[in-house]
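B., you asked whether I could sanity-check this one before it goes into the benchmark set. Here's the sequence:
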Amino acid sequence: MRLRFLGSGDAFGSGGRFQSCLHVTGPGGVLLLDCGASSLIPLKAAGLDPGAVDAVVVSHLHGDHFGGLPFLILDGQFQRRTRPLLIAGPPGVRARVEAAMEVFFPGSTAVTRRFAVEFAELAERAATPVGPATVIAFAVRHPSGAPAYAFRLTWDGHVLAYSGDTEWTDALVEVADGADVFVCEAYSADKAVPHHLDYRTLAAHRHRLACRRLIVSHMGADMLARRATVDVECAEDGQVVQL
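And here's what the prediction gave me:
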């Protein structure tokens, strides 16, 4: 399994980074974990084919995590995609994506396409097949008008854990347990921001996270300015990690 950070930034482009999007490949397919509004840009800049994406797993329904889906779907339409696309996420994911499509491109949900767009709602703590991978969702603390999830993604004998956006919750200990890589939010360095995780809090719980490798992402301006001083690996847009 190979992970590429297409977007490791926050919602506001801090540091010139793209919004949250992890490109994951392995035997039998290509998945995205989150698809922020900017995601199509780094995907194409990296020479990756959007039409090869089999599924997108959405952590929560904020625009910097799902807002790229209307563009991904319409790009597939214009590129004559035939491969089905599965979008898996919290309850209400289909309604939110289709509402966004109608805001951005009125009438786009009624168009007949050459490929199916399928939706799956993830149930908390249930092992759900998503393409060639298995995903387990854990409820976290980040209000978005629907449940927010962290994930454990198992594929080809490897485990990739992902926090999504959340303040500290003990669910992250379970999410990280035994993972090859845990990609975790560190929005700020030591400033407490409601519904987000800061590095100081993460560091205080680091001994509880039994993952083999911890990489922080979704970094805001404060965390980016201090990333050289923290004792943790910080994601970079374009970074590739082999699991």
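One thing to flag: The chain is about 20% helix and 30% strand. Otherwise nothing jumped out at me.
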